[in-house]
Amino acid sequence: MEMGKILLAMEEYTFTFLAMAVGFLVVAYLYEPYWKVRHIPGPVPLPLIGHLHLLAKHGPDVFPVLAKKHGPVFRFHVGRQPLIIVADAELCKEVGIKKFKSMPNRSLPSPIANSPIHLKGLFATRDSRWSAMRNIIVSVYQPSHLAGLIPAMESCIRRAAAASLGDGGVEVVFSDLALSLATDVIGQAAFGADFGLSGKPAPPSVDGVAAAAEKAAASEFINMHIYSTTSLKMDLSGSLSTIAGTFLPFLQKPLRQALLRIPGSADREITRVNGELRRMMDAIVAARAAEASPAPALAPRVPHKSKDFLSVVLAARESDASTRELLSPDYLSALTYEHLLAGSATTAFTLSSLVYLVANHPEVEEKLLKEIDAFGPRDDDRVPTAEDLQTKFPYLDQVVKESMRFFMVSPLVARETSEKVTIGGYALPKGTWVWMAPGVLAKDPVNFPEPEVFRPERFDPAGDEQRRRHPYAFIPFGIGPRVCIGQKFALQEIKLAVIHLYQRYVFRHSPRMESPLEFQFGIVLNFKHGVKLQVIKRRKDC
Ligand code: HEM
């Protein structure tokens, strides 16, 4: 009888012990990453969500506030995962350049970790694979080669402006136009393919039905592209498995597999769209690899004399067996898609920001128009050369920089420690997620007095403000060996577009434009409701 009681009690306790052990393991799992960096200052995280509620409420504006309160190195928890945010120019130099060897890779937040198409590009690959791939690609972005891309860029810009802006007097969602334009430019310059998204006139031989089909295919492509880009969300509005991955990373994969079977789930839709885009990319790559004719319907081949991104990587593949192994079909199509993604959303956002900001700063517009008009008569078809862009448009250069500072497209730049390292006096163990905060630097009054004022002159190289500023206080393209590979490509395209547009038009905010602006915080920043503008054709005398 006694024995029976003891066994019963043990049974009861066993259950309690088991429940406690499981509870302990769950708590240990949730707190393990925090424990290792608990010595770094930061706000108190909420259980499970960490500080995501702050991000959902304030967007990236939360980081300057936290930096002010906690100092230039602080903790920010994305669900279970602590990020160590570095918000000081000198410390960013330490992370990105001086101690690069200890932090050569990017940590991958759940939206990317969840997205197979993004995992094999340059952005996500690591260590020697990354450096081998980057060394192959980097030659495409050398200045001498970029100069040869000017005619292709200019023809896309000309076509987009003619098709969407015409004689003015219209209202446009400029951010959509900019995305179509930037995607077309990447298509031509990187793949030698004409997507025709920003207003390709139908060739005379094409009948009405075929032209309509081509237009529908182009519009579906851009919709899928927008969907894929904006589905990479950093807050709590992503797919269910992405959200789960933020809290409990081990759940992400199995949950995703389960959700893929449920019709209508966001996971299934994202996977379908990414699969579709990848098939399109694969078709372009296969056509180019075989130099087959005809090319896929969506992307007729453009005769190109200069080497483009695809020809360089395809040629490299043929050079030796190890490169062929490195650039296997999976990596090749991921790199191709990455170029489309990285090269279009960012550039489009920057161009849209610039036009939006200039539209309500008449003094900036006047100076910009003066500089552009001084280049030559408006009706003249003279296109700036690479040298013209460098020497004849100093004010445009300042306007581009100030627009990028004002609305920073990548307010955070990720790294992960691959060994123990000290930053700003704090020891960080291997595996720590260290994220630099160019967005905080850009709004720091120490580097940019009156940071909420749009004033391009602050980037005047002869000005005091520019001379006093820390050389790494303005890093919209990142920093160090992993700096944006397409930086010069993007700046060339943006400058050509601004010159072409302002030679012919000026812009005003549409009454439908919301105020204040709302942003979507995805893997890059985006305008939530687009940039809606009225287009005014410039008269010859003004
Ligand atoms: C205004 C336009 C752009 C902005 C603001 C921008 C910004 C950035 C930033 C902040 C990074 C991270 C750098 C770092 O970690 O230090 C990056 C990386 C990258 N960008 Fe851009 N980017 C732009 C345009 C482009 C274009 C046009 C391309 C390609 C044609 C491109 C391709 C890439 C790639 C492949 C990486 C990863 C580089 C690596 O890990 O080696 N970007 N970009």
Automatic annotation (TrEMBL):
Keyword Metal-binding: yes
Pfam families linked to this entry: p450
Example GO molecular function: metal ion binding
Residues that, per the record, bind heme: C484
Protein name according to UniProt: Uncharacterized protein
Coiled-coil features, chain-numbered ranges: none
Cofactor(s) in the UniProt record: heme
Family: Belongs to the cytochrome P450 family.
Organism of this sequence: Urochloa decumbens
Metal-binding in keyword set: yes
UniProt cross-references to InterPro entries, sorted A to Z: Cyt_P450, Cyt_P450_CS, Cyt_P450_E_grp-I, Cyt_P450_sf
Spans through the membrane: 12-31
Gene3D superfamilies assigned: Cytochrome P450
